[in-house]
Each structure stands twice: as C-alpha cells, then as structure tokens.
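Exercise: predict the fold of this chain.
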Amino acid sequence: MKSKLIPYIFWILCIADIFAITFNYPILQWIAKPLLLPCLVYWYISEINGDKDTMSKLMVAGLLFCWMGDVFLMFESRMPLCFILGLASFLIGHIFYMFYFNKIPGNIKTKQGINLLMFLPVAIYVAVLLSLLYPSLGPLKIPVIAYALVLGTMLSMALMQYRKIAVNIALLFIAGAISFVVSDSLLALNKFHKPISQAGFFIMLTYCLAQYLIVMGGIKLYKSRHGVNGGKEY
C-alpha cells in the first residue's frame, strides 16, 4: 500500500470512530479505533524509509504506547483497572514524545536560547486544571497529577522547538501538543469535573488531530534533516 494513501485512511477511520461515538455504534468503534495509530506508525515508517535511528524509535515507541492506551480505555467500562492502565500507557507515550523533542538538534544559526517565560502559561494552565479536578479525583489523585505534569512538560518541550528548528515544522509539533492537551483536558473534565456535551466527539477529534500533526512534524523533520525530496537542512 502506498504511504500517500495512509493519511486518507487514517482520517476515514477517525470519522468512522467519531460517528460511532456520536450515534452509538459500538461495533464500528471497536473496528475503527484500534486501527488509527497503526496507520500512523505505518505512514511514519514508510515515509522515513524504515530508518531505525534513535529519534525514529522514540517516535514509534510513543505511538505504540498511545495505541496501548487506546485499547485499554476501550475496556474501561468492563474493567475499571483498564483506566489506570490506559493512563499509564499514555503517560509513557508522552515521555517518549518528550525524549523525541529533546533529541531534536537545533541549528546554531537559529537557536536563540530558551525563554522560560514561554512556559509560564503552561504551568498556569496545568495548575488551574488540577485545581478543578482535585476535589473529585479520590484515590486517583497521584496518578492524575503525575499525568498532568508529564503532559504539561511534553507541551513545554514542543514549544521549545520554535527556537530550535524550522518554524513550519515546529508549529506542527506545537499544534499537535496543544491538541493533545485539549483532548486530555476534555477527557479529564468530563470524567472528574462535570459532563461535557458531545465530549466524545471533541475528545476524539482533537486526539486524532494531535497524533496526526506530531507524526507529520516527525516526517517533515526527518526529510528536512536528510534532504529527502529536495528538503533542505534546517
């Protein structure tokens, strides 16, 4: 299968999953959702020609752990433990994304140093989110706090790329990380704070967008670094 078709298949599956959530077709969701991230893994590996460098392994590992999180959360209603397993899987996935962002080398000509003030809005957002969730977390206080801190750190490290690499690639990573934060925030608020109208629709849409943008950024970064398809070194 040509890798150019994979993004279209991914979005068809995403639409199918959102349709299944919105109109309550569980069988369709059980078919579509587990296939989403394998599509992105296949797309990423195909576009980088199967390169097994450290950064590629980190990206794929992040996607695979997020896929495990997807699968575990599908069983949450039947086995409450699966929520914790899903949370842990996504947390590990975010850590791999953090390592990936940290591994990205910056061009000395464009690297201007990191302004710590750019992380202040992230810290404030995480603090406000946790203040809303905390009263309802019960025994999940520590896992959810740990997850929120890792999620915020992942977003902060994505923001750092704006100072390190080509703007068009950095913006893909930043937009992807922001979408991930929005998706996870909606999920947490809907579960622990108060129900959100059409939560499943918005959670899945922002989640799919997040993963797609991060993978697209990874592909463009690889091609830029390796001069693929006429790409220039950033």
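Check your answer against the key: The helical segments are 6-22, 26-47, 54-74, 81-103, 120-133, 141-160, 167-193, 199-226.
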